[in-house]
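Closing statement on the 1,3-dihydroxyacetonephosphate sub-project.
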Amino acid sequence: MKTIIAANWKMHKTRSEAAQTAASVATFLGKNPMQCSVLIFAPFTALGDVAEQTAPNLAFGAQNMYPADHGAYTGEISPDMILDCGCQWVLTGHSERRRIFREDDAFIGKKTAFALRNGLSVMLCIGETLEERRAGQLRAVLSRQLLGGFADPLLNDVQPDRLAVAYEPVWAIGTGVSAKPEDAMEAHGIIREELISRFGSKGQDLPILYGGSVKPENSEELLKLDNVNGLLVGGASLEAESFIRIIRIGSEYAS
Ligand code: 13P
């Protein structure tokens, strides 16, 4: 499976700033063929602008969507609107949406299935808080979030390349402290087991990305680990230069 290096820009960048960073990444990929896939999750307002940047192995996505075609859902956007901007992916279940916007597993599962049904590919984010980790609930939390996010039977027939999981321990997001290799490896191993029990052999082919304080300096040690098939990068993806450094490392670990 191809390593995925993904950027989550969260609520950063105006349209022109986003277009500029996406253009730098696209130019780099145009000149330097990389073995990994690169994905950028941009803010809604910039989706149309970033999608104009094309390069081999480069795709774009939104950070959220609402599970309905259209209607009275003030402030929300549908999968069709994301596709219409030229983007193919969406994130679901990010811990910031779980925590700040109170999204639960049932809603995240509904969004994941709706997005897939309507032609988007989905990266489901899961991860435990520090309290849950300290209470020995790592497996229980990951399993609950994974099975909740992937609950819909529709997913049984989905192509593995339209689905990905990002393991993002909440305590490592935006803190500058990434998970230690042994902690990341344990969590990724649990997720792989759960994916296989959910999907059978297809569970072997779903990429599992690590996210949480990824930087150029720690990318290699994370990508070396078993079952780490890519990285989801927040802060260090905002500058094209540091994101490109991570892409270069990702290309070395393309399996
Ligand atoms: P940081 O890389 O800034 O810790 O953010 C991680 C993240 O939440 C990506 O989705």
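Residues 160 and 206 are 5 Å apart (CA to CA). With this model delivered, the sub-project is considered complete and its resources will be redirected to Aim 3.
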